[in-house]
Amino acid sequence: MSRQTVYNEHGNKQRLVEAVALVKTAEFVDAARACLARSPGAVEGVAEAVRQVHALTRLDPLARSVLTGTDADDMLPMLTTRGGWVLDLVAPAIGEHLARHRPDLPPARIAFAADVLTRLALSHLLTPDHGPDRAVDRAADCAVEAVTVVAAALLGPSPQRAG
Fold it and tell me: Measured between alpha carbons, how far is 66 from 18 in angstroms, rounded to an integer?
């Protein structure tokens, strides 16, 4: 496919970058939703979804570019300075999961927890603290640990169920 054909379809390089980022992010949201649906608990589901997204990032070079900016400086702003659209796609999936497991919590608390957990997971993906060979694995470990602790703190203990 010629460059002109691509530009005729998408308008310019920035719109092409946005289209690729949207498709890859939607794939990751679908994978995260599948993890959330299988999970027996609120916190465990979020942690497993984070693990899955980080694993997919490690395996998919295009996804790695979209979600970390690696080898694609044009992609990085899509998750940083212009990343609101990512939060709009991801946080509702986390919020729906939390609400299913914690119907005792007010919707505003659920939305806040989903937003914080999404930002936390993405920050570990964007700013790994080790060399490239272990960056994604280490980021996933940190994100899962952080998400687990923060989710428990934000959600509080589950109400006791009468048995």
Answer: 9
d(Cα 103, Cα 105) in Å, to the nearest integer? 5
Residues 6+ apart with CB under 8 A from 53: 28, 31, 32, 67, 121, 125
**Mean pLDDT confidence for 4-20:** 71
Q: Which of 129, 160, 116, 132 is nearest to 57 (CA)?
A: 132
How far apart CA 147 and CA 163 sit, in angstroms, is: 30
pTM (predicted TM-score): 0.73
Looking at residue 163, its pLDDT comes to 40
The Cα–Cα gap between 112 and 115 comes to 5
pLDDT tens string 111-148 = 998 988 888 887 777 665 555 555 556 666 776 777 77
Alpha carbon distance, N-terminus to C-terminus of the chain: 63
Burial class from Cβ neighbours inside 10 Å (0-12, 13-18, 19+) for residue 159 reads exposed
